[in-house]
Specification:
The chain is α+β, with helices and mostly antiparallel strands and 705 residues long. 35% of the residues lie in helices and 21% in strands. The chain contains 22 helices and 30 strands. Strands 6, 7, 8, 9, 10, 11 and 14 form a 7-stranded mixed beta sheet that branches. The mean pLDDT is 92. The structure holds one RNA strand of 87 nucleotides.
RNA sequence: GCCGGGGUGGCGGAACUGGUAGACGCGCCGGAUUCAAAAUCCGGUUUCCGAAAGGAAGUGGGGGUUCGAUUCCCCCCUCCGGCACCA
């Protein structure tokens, strides 16, 4: 990376696997514990029953373990969570004030947080003391509820299974799947009646309760009310299982619909809804919500799709979670003076679970509170924890007294953050969350970690993602030896805009090399011509003016491409065009050479961010004593952009039929008349009635006949 | 399934605010230079018709709005990223 000329400051290097680094996230975790920002609850993992280990979603292939080939089960185990949901509104609202982030990423994050306003409703369950609570954003469809469904892990389902072998078998079947959302959303929707009835709170009717594989314990309350007439998934499920479908919403335009033929999910006007008939969505929503609130059976509430961040991993490689379990004191955070909890490295791998569990010297520890024998947590942190704050630590990597110090106040937020689009949600959401946790701990005043975000594309080689896994990487060292660092840099900038995937091409690298040689020769040949006279703008001939216009148009375009658009590929293309124009411009006069000199200086300066080594040398070649890096960016001379004539395209009925050269200050009528006079245009206008002439000054004329 | 982003010559890509589709580069073809080759330079290169002038078609597919659509709207196909334990 040094040979490529990247100016990384290696004195700021951090290594997230070192205790000097991870002790601070252990410390922050204990602070979060004190504030109630972390908690432990049961949650689902992929369990490989043969290898006796927890698998990542990626390690589950078609529902089987990648090594054992065993059918994976969902299993619930206690895990630590960070309360990112406590910041849901802030994380959502701030997106509106982040102009430096791409809209696509902000949209993805908004959808991910998924704020929705709705109502929590309780339904009495026949024969049970505890009512069933569901969340809905469509209380206006309440009269259309024809069944309810709970998750396989829901207490009501578990209870029903105890007395019903079929239900028990179905619940077991539901667990035979991995925990990935994509799997749950695409698998066949299955369900079974539990033989339990729920009482509809408004009609008093019995509603059957089902258990269904698409209802998740971890979402909301683990129970849903089903309105098959007005919800796509409920409709399909009802059709499949012969459940009744009831229309309770009618289209606003008064048209008739057949709810048995097609689901109707739009908001409309209520029908078949008892006292709440004939109401708009808002009125029905409020009327029903009020009734529930007044009767104490429900409340308006805000629901988020965003779930708390599960940080426990049942793996050895990672930062130990700084918790000690004591029979008397429960979970106790490791006191600050006992941090860091260092991951032991003299371990034996058994192939079954984390080796930390088999290390009494690690596990057995005195309770920090009462001193009794206690046990250390053997789970480690999700590695996303490490990547959620490293950028701030760059400011003060050497501080062994604090997580961040006053240097972070100077350097953060990060001005420009670059990463792959695959990080659009998880990493970038966790980092935004962590930044706020650090802020609320008094470590920083900064809320948003990254002011400007660039999401770069992948590099492909032969159509496949370039990666060590696939063994299709390109060795930059080899290319640097063969062509020099500037050629490699130029190709990477030129091949595609940064946010797009880049197709590696050896021929393309060769082409960049050729261009740099032409660039070099153009400057050298010019300098070989001897001394250059001062540029006298007033005395230029037409061709010299044209050349000079090209220079200043290029300065305008390249400055904009680099500064505003960040399209480095088009900036390189424009530089190539300028060099091509200069090379073709053969004029050895004093004025001609002065114009060329100006153009070459501009392009040397403007290519320097991309090919710094060559440009540094060429700047000296052009006769400058000052180092290029200390020279200001070239400025556009607006007067150079003015042209006396403009080429205008002429269309007839929108089809290109000719071009005319018109005076730059010609009025619309004159331009139109000149367009009409063009011989080829005449061929298409002749004998037809001209209905309209559209003139776009400086661009085109369209004659409608 | 849901969310986000793509699909333009043989290839990478350009066209920024609805106004010349294919800039720039690669590749290929022809020429110059050379004993020859490499390198370099010059010219050509969307497809089809035509000697040319010029014409027709054309931006994943279908429809629409407009004088004019790669660009805006609707429907569809397809590829890529993400879907909370790959990071």
């Amino acid at each position: 990376m040094n040979r490529l000329g990247y100016a990384y400051d290696w004195t700021r290097e951090v290594m997230t696997c070192r205790p000097e680094y991870y002790r601070w996230e252990q410390w922050l975790f204990t602070k979060m514990f004190e504030k109630g920002l972390v908690y432990r609850k049961n949650s689902v993992v992929n369990w490989d029953p043969v290898d006796q280990t927890v698998l990542a979603n990626e390690q589950v292939i078609d529902g089987r373990g990648w090594r054992s080939d065993a059918l994976v089960e969902r299993r619930e185990i206690p895990q630590w969570f960070m309360k990112i949901t406590a910041y849901a509104d802030e994380l959502l609202d701030e997106l509106d004030r982040m102009p430096g982030w791409p809209d696509s990423v902000k949209t993805m994050q908004r959808n991910w947080i998924g704020r929705s306003e709705g109502v929590e409703l309780t339904f009495a369950v026949a024969g049970e003391d505890e009512p069933l609570t569901v969340f809905t954003t469509r209380p206006d469809t309440l009269f259309g509820v024809t069944y309810m469904a709970v998750a396989a892990e829901h207490p009501l389902a578990v209870k029903a299974a105890a007395g019903n072998a079929e239900v028990a078998a179905f619940i077991e079947e539901c667990k035979q799947t991995d925990a990935a959302e994509a799997t749950l959303e695409t698998m066949e929707k299955k369900g079974m009646a539990l033989g339990i009835n729920v009482i509809h709170p408004l009609t008093g009717e019995d509603v059957p309760l089902w258990v269904a594989n698409f209802v998740l314990m971890s979402y909301g309350t683990g129970a849903v009310m089903a309105v098959p007439g007005h919800d796509e998934r409920d409709w399909e499920f009802a059709k499949k299982h012969g459940l009744p479908i009831k229309q309770v919403i009618a289209p606003l335009d008064g048209s008739e619909i057949d709810i048995e033929e097609a689901v109707f999910i739009d908001k409309g006007v209520t029908v078949n809804s008892g006292d709440y008939d004939g109401l708009s969505y808002e009125d029905a929503f409020n009327g029903i919500a009020d009734w529930f609130e007044e009767s104490g059976r429900g409340r308006r509430t805000v629901n988020y799709r965003l779930r708390d961040w599960g940080v426990s991993r049942q793996r050895y490689w990672g930062t130990p979670i700084p918790i000690i379990y004591c029979d008397d004191c429960d979970a106790v955070p490791v006191p600050e003076d006992q941090l860091p909890v260092v991951l032991p490295e003299d371990v034996e791998f058994t192939g079954h679970g984390s080796p930390l569990k088999d290390m009494p010297e690690f596990v057995n520890v005195a309770c920090p509170k009462c001193g009794k024998d206690a046990r250390r947590e053997t789970d480690t942190f999700d590695t996303f924890v490490e990547s959620s704050w490293y950028f701030a630590r760059y400011a003060c990597p050497d501080n062994d007294k604090a997580m961040l110090d006053e240097r972070a106040a100077y350097w953060t937020p990060v001005d420009q953050y670059t990463g792959g689009i695959e990080h659009a949600i998880l990493h970038l959401m966790y980092a935004r969350f962590f930044q706020r946790v650090m802020r609320d701990e008094g470590l920083t005043d900064v809320s948003e970690p990254f002011t400007n975000l660039m999401t770069q594309g992948m590099v492909l080689k032969d159509g496949a993602k370039m990666s060590k896994n696939k063994g299709n990487t390109v060795d930059p060292q080899e290319l640097i030896v063969k062509y020099g660092a500037d050629t490699v840099r130029l190709f990477m900038m030129f091949a595609a805009p940064p946010e797009q995937t880049l197709e590696w091409s050896d021929d393309g690298v060769q082409g960049s090399f050729r261009f740099l040689k032409r660039f070099w020769n153009a400057v050298q040949n010019h300098v070989d011509g001897g001394k250059v006279a001062d540029l006298d703008v007033a005395s230029l001939n037409a061709a010299q003016k044209d050349m000079r216009r090209k220079t200043h148009q290029s300065i305008a375009k390249i400055s904009d491409d680099l500064g505003r658009r960040a399209t480095f590929n088009t900036a390189v293309a424009a530089s190539m065009e300028l060099i091509n124009s200069i090379t073709r411009f053969e004029d050895d006069s004093d004025a001609g050479r002065a114009v060329v000199h100006e153009g070459l200086e501009a392009v040397v300066l403007m290519l320097s961010p991309m090919v710094p080594h060559i440009c540094h040398a060429l700047w000296a070649t052009l006769g400058h004593k000052t180092a290029l890096i200390d020279v200001p960016w070239p400025q556009v001379d607006e007067s150079a952009l003015e042209a006396e004539m403009a080429e205008i395209v002429v269309q007839v009925n929108g089809k290109l039929r000719g071009r005319v050269s018109v005076a730059a200050d010609a009025d619309r009528d004159a331009i139109g008349q000149q367009a009409l006079a063009d011989p080829n245009v005449q061929r298409f206008v002749e004998g037809k009635e001209v209905r309209k002439i559209i003139v776009v000054p400086g661009r085109l004329v369209n004659i409608v006949v």
